[in-house]
Design goal:
single chain; alpha+beta; 17 helices; binds flavin-adenine dinucleotide
């Protein structure tokens, strides 16, 4: 038995140190099922103090630490890929306490192991909104959301996790606890260190707590599904919506024809109330905080004007909450349906909105040239300039060949993204899967500064090695 295990068992209790292969299995493979790593144990601390003890023990034994939340990440960031070094996976699922909530301060303080949906529910119970919303909200955790700088469908109005995080608590690689759990709305006292850890993907610390922003809860919503004949008209519809309803625009999501067809094929339980032949589909939502506002009328007027301007051939305004939910169900089923359709080479590109049409077309053309057999499904947060372009290709038994083929597709799509002034990851992160792509795309000085920060906090590269970049 490796000497580290009894020490860990003494720190968190033997039942919270999983070592049986069958117990470890679910935590060693990423959500996409592409990478399987190895770990001596999965360790489940019950508090920040226990987490710090676990880190100190790991460090004493020279064992790597891989923080894991709900393991729903898209790029194998939480998969232990430390070999030939030894690693433990640290899961925070026992740390799921809502520490406090302040309706006046519009903030909620939580353990990092809280499942996102439970934070949303706690906010709602206090008549507030925690706006982060994504398909995996029933299982992803706040620590994972912070560490990937998650975006989701409400980022258009409320921003990403970086905008929603007021304070945080983290265990550093040397075992010290950094307590930045403040709910301050303004703080100009030097460097804003919390941002080092947001989007750091577990390479700099284990996030153990966070103070998050809350908002007034929208009382009334109106949702519509519109068809558009081109990406240009989709973007014109977005621009018109912003002009007409401003901040009331709660979501503006897009899906192309292929994406809808894939949902129809692989998620037949999801009702699609349109013919499947429109080039683009937009999910538009207006959400109003004021109880006497009429989002339905505003959305109807917006769609009427768009129809008149020839921006959309057709639109369906949800007539009930159930129908609005059904529209969202279409949007939220894209990941599972696409996964079922073949091997998904996905992109999380983001560009300035002015370049969105150009970059989506350039990416599509580049894929078509490189892989004429690929199905090209596009969906995403078009209002943020963040369309997920998926090239879905046949699965191959030869894993290395599959990865090489995927990388050839990434290379051409990433080039199109960079030419439009974009970034290769808007919200999913880099993890293990995209290390090579970041090295190609990011300015060398930026990578050098990331490495400098990593060396300062984690000189022995114990925290989540092999993620983001190789040190
Ligand atoms: C169906 C589906 C839909 C999705 N939709 C979206 C979407 O719209 N927008 C979006 O942004 N993402 C989306 N995702 C991706 C994923 O849900 C997010 O990246 C989420 O934030 C990951 O949270 P997690 O708790 O599962 O983290 P994990 O997958 O467990 O980990 C992700 C990364 O964070 C690190 N980490 C986790 N917890 C901690 C911690 N406490 N301290 C330090 N590091 C930590 C891990 O080491 C890893 O690098 C989707 C995923 C699925 C399956």
């Amino acid at each position: 038995v490796p000497a580290v295990l009894p020490a860990l068992a003494a720190a968190v209790g033997p039942s919270n140190v999983l070592t049986e292969p069958a117990d470890l299995t679910p935590f060693l493979t990423d959500w996409r099922g592409r990478y399987t790593g190895a770990a001596l144990a999965v360790v489940r601390p019950g508090s920040t103090t226990e987490t710090a003890a676990v880190v100190r023990i790991a460090r004493e034994h020279g064992v790597c630490v891989v923080p894991q939340g709900g393991n729903t990440g898209m790029c194998a960031g939480a998969t232990p890929m430390a070999a030939p070094r030894e690693a433990i996976v640290v899961r925070l699922d026992r740390m799921s306490r809502i520490r406090g909530i302040s309706p006046l301060g519009d903030s909620i303080s939580v353990d990092a192991g809280c499942v996102l949906a439970n934070v949303q529910a706690a906010a709602e119970a206090a008549d507030r909104l925690f706006p982060l919303s994504l398909g995996a909200e029933g299982s992803c955790q706040v620590g994972g959301n912070v560490s990937t700088n998650a975006g989701g469908t409400a980022a258009l109005r409320y921003g990403t996790m970086r905008d929603l995080t007021l304070g945080l608590e983290a265990v550093l690689p040397d075992g010290r606890v950094l307590d930045l759990m403040t709910a301050l709305r303004k703080d100009s006292a030097g460097y804003d260190i919390r941002h080092w850890f947001i989007g750091a993907e577990g390479t700099l610390a284990i996030v153990t707590g966070a103070v998050l922003k809350l908002f007034p809860r929208p009382r009334r919503r109106a949702t519509a599904l519109a068809t558009c004949s081109s990406i240009e008209s989709l973007l014109s519809l977005l621009s018109l919506a912003r002009e007409k309803v401003g901040e009331r625009l709660g979501a503006f999501e897009a899906m192309n024809r292929e994406q809808i067809a894939i949902i129809a094929e692989h998620a037949p339980e999801v009702a699609i109330p349109f013919s499947l032949d429109a080039p683009w589909y937009a999910l538009v939502e207006i959400a109003d905080v004021a109880g006497d506002a009429d989002p339905g009328a505003a959305l109807e007027a917006l769609l009427a004007e768009a129809l008149e301007k020839g921006l959309l051939p057709d639109a369906l305004l949800a007539s009930s909450e159930a129908q609005a939910k059904a529209f969202w169900r279409i949007r939220h089923s894209v990941s599972e349906a696409s996964k079922a359709a073949g091997y998904v080479v996905s992109h999380d590109s983001v560009v300035p909105l002015s370049g969105q049409g150009r970059s989506a077309k350039a990416a599509e053309e580049a894929i078509r040239r490189a892989r004429p057999d690929a199905r090209i499904a596009i969906h995403g947060h078009v209002g943020d300039g963040n369309l997920h372009v998926l090239a879905i290709v046949p699965r191959l038994a030869d894993r290395e060949r599959q990865f090489a083929e995927a990388d050839a597709i990434h290379a051409v799509v990433d080039r199109a993204t960079m030419e439009c002034g974009g970034s290769i990851s808007a919200e999913h992160g880099i993890g293990h899967a995209n290390v090579k792509r970041l090295a190609r795309a990011a300015p060398p000085l930026e990578i050098e500064m990331m490495r400098a920060l990593k060396r300062m906090l984690d000189p022995d590269d114990l925290f989540n090695p092999g993620k983001l970049f190789t040190v």
